[in-house]
Amino acid sequence: MRDGTVLVTGGAGYIGSHAVLALLDAGWKVVVVDNLVTGFDWAVDKRAKLVVANIEDEATVRRTMRDEGVIAVMHFAGSVVVPESVSDPLKYYRNNTVASRALIESAVACGVKHFIFSSTAATYGIPEQVPVSEESPKQPINPYGMSKLMTEIMLKDVAAAHPINYCALRYFNVAGADPQGRSGQSTAGATHLIKIAAEAATGKRAAVSVFGTDFATADGTGVRDYIHVTDLAAAHVDALDLLIARPEESHTMNCGYGRGFSVLQVLDAVDRVTNRTIERKLEGRRAGDPDALVADNSRILATLPWRPKHDDLETIVKDALAWERKLAERG
Ligand code: UFG
């Protein structure tokens, strides 16, 4: 068992619940703070403690930090639907930026030494160059990306002023599910391609819309860097070790595999795995979709011992499908 506890906000959600598994498997004690608005209590591994609260509930959060001996925060809680952030920006600035401010303040007040933040490739907006490095211009094109970028900026200033260091991890397209079937993407109303394709493959929806066929890519459909959620969770555990080993340093790193697949390549992979053909509906572009978004992942590879273990599109699809079937059985 490691010395100290990690507080995971949003640990009942998709990525957070996988980080909880990775931390527990690595020997950490874990306490989850989640308001269960989009997360599920059953998604939190029983080895972790669950506190149902908002992260801006200072009394509860600070009591938890002190009582549980929290040495680090992994912060996943927040709102994540890009189009919703456009129609309701204040929700995103409240749930992502303002709530993060309160959480960071609690961490500083309680002497928590390390902070890992769930950031996003949406901080880059439409990239000028692909693969995108961390030094590329940060020009978010929606309030979601801006709300996350503002939190990165707060962390930078706070780490300069207080004895806390941080790692901001900018995720590319997270997909798949725990290979052992312990967690997966469960929130209803999916908008993410691989989740939607898994729903189509299990009969939950009739077809998959292909948003845009005239992008500047090999087959005309959008290209993204899909990363398996279990690899992403492992990067957080390694980032924590780095923050502990080098308390004077903070880091910002892309999390991706450095290669992209088009929408049609993803759907072809689903067909290969299921031995069936999903119906494709060719439609117009969604607002704000870049042609291609692929990580330059040289920094994370140079900084952490982290190496992808599930970098295979069919594996990602297979794990996503297995979880989708499990959800279907649950009803
Ligand atoms: N797509 C379809 N049909 C669908 C859903 C998606 O064709 O039903 C396409 C999109 O147009 C895009 C690709 O599949 O080309 C991936 O779309 P997702 O919605 O799965 O993911 P995004 O790339 O739009 O979003 C991801 C993250 C966001 C982040 C965003 C921008 O999930 O959190 O990248 O960096 F904000």
From TrEMBL:
CDD domains: UDP_G4E_1_SDR_e. Keywords: Carbohydrate metabolism, Isomerase, NAD. The keyword Signal does not apply. Pathway: Carbohydrate metabolism; galactose metabolism. One of its GO terms (biological process) is galactose catabolic process via UDP-galactose, Leloir pathway. The keyword rRNA-binding does not apply. Signal peptide: none annotated. It comes from the Bacteria. It holds the Pfam family Epimerase. Its EC number is 5.1.3.2. Residues 6-242 form the NAD-dependent epimerase/dehydratase domain. Its cofactor is NAD(+). GO terms for molecular function: UDP-glucose 4-epimerase activity. Homodimer. Belongs to the NAD(P)-dependent epimerase/dehydratase family. This is UDP-glucose 4-epimerase. The lineage of its organism: Bacteria, Pseudomonadati, Pseudomonadota, Alphaproteobacteria, Sphingomonadales. The gene is galE.
